[in-house]
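Question: I have long wanted to understand how a fold can be written as tokens. Here is the record:
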Amino acid sequence: MNLTELNPKQLLQLQASATNELKRRDIVRTHNNPLGDYTEWLVATALNLSLANNSKAGYDAIDSNGVKIQIKGRRITSQNKSTPLSAIRNLQEQDFDELIAVIFDDAFNVIEAVAIPHAVVAEHASYRQHVNAHVLIIKEALLMNPRVKCLKKIISN
């Protein structure tokens, strides 16, 4: 299929069809955030986690020991190499025990996957008033923290 031959409406229809198929396969759970849903599915599958209900605020999955896990994904491209994760709401409430972040390249290959304890997230995240949430940027200082665990070999696609 040559995408350059498709008009904008046809491209959007193709995207919708792909999202519908991912939903049928239980890989994405919503139509709003395919990257987030895919990341949750990928992490839960790799680590044998139970995904929480979509309406559960504060965490996305639970492990066999009851550890609550927030899962965040970020796709970087040649046009945008920044690595801030999506907003972390109510960080002070400690709704999760651990945050797993997965960074993808523009072809959705995993280039980084880490487990970050809540305390480390709290140390490295910055509060942003305009989004009323904390933002965590995945950068070298965070990745070098001895409490951060690399999961790249476990979480791969």
Summary: Residues 104 and 124 are 21 Å apart (CA to CA). The longest helix spans residues 8-24. Helices lie at 8-24, 34-47, 118-124, 140-143.
